[in-house]
Model the fold of this input.
Amino acid sequence: EVQLVESGGGLVQAGGSLRLSCEASGFTFDDYAIGWFRVAPGKEREGVSCISRSDGSTYYADSVKGRFTISSDNAKNTVYLQMNSLEPEDTADYSCAAELSRSCVDWNKPWDYWGQGTQVTVSS
Done:
């Protein structure tokens, strides 16, 4: 059974940094992608970033380019989202998702597996 566990959320002042972690388990093959998504109050879910172990591709939303960096530690089956220069507009519930045999080119297609989410709050 595929399981995703996020951690690293919290409260930070504008301009600060946080690193989110998404630990994945239950994958038989190293052929999947991990995506980060966020939902802010009153807004639709937004795709933030993606990294694929299927083809090595990555994706960043325009709103986070240059500020967020996605990376993976394959030995730990963990994907990280380093978030720098945080803005109040980044306040949201952040979730990671996984999909088998997925390129980040297809980040906006449905994802089968989701974590429980972690809250990020950026104060002004």
About this structure: Residues 90 and 122 are 7 Å apart (CA to CA). The mean pLDDT is 95.
